[in-house]
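Handout, page 2. Input:
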Amino acid sequence: MDYKIQTVHNAADDLPLCKEIVELTRPVRKTYPEYGKWLEEKFFPGLKDGSRIIIAAKDETGRLAGTILLKKTAEEKKICCLFVRQDCRGRGIAGKLMQESLEVLQTDKPLLSIAEKNYPQMQKLLSLHHFKFSYRKNGAYTTNGTEYYFNNEATEILKKEVLSPLLARARQRHESLR
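Output:
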């Protein structure tokens, strides 16, 4: 089956597409309880000002097979959600959506976070696109959940600019006490 990839920069008035996204991604709420609220209050309104972008994969019947939801601002280029319909998985849709998102965001290092429990099914895709693990955070979205963060250059900068000098000073102090 062939899938049509469509990038939508302003779908604020496309209620059928927005409703399809809400339905398709409903399972995301199990991992991210505030997901529905985020869609309604952040993502869909962001379509109007251009800070949010939808990339949709539609099957031959025009039904939504998968989507990737993006944030693109001067400060942040981020993959917010990637979801493929259960019966369409394993057909390369996620890879096509990911490739298109890199082009739309104009970066090969977009920010991304993923629940620890979803990482095994995303590991190959993230590896193929050279996503670099930055850190993990317990309780980021749920009390018992762990979130993995990728391509967070701020973390790398902090490690280099803040932690490295602090560690060097601590080593110097330790050696001077000898």
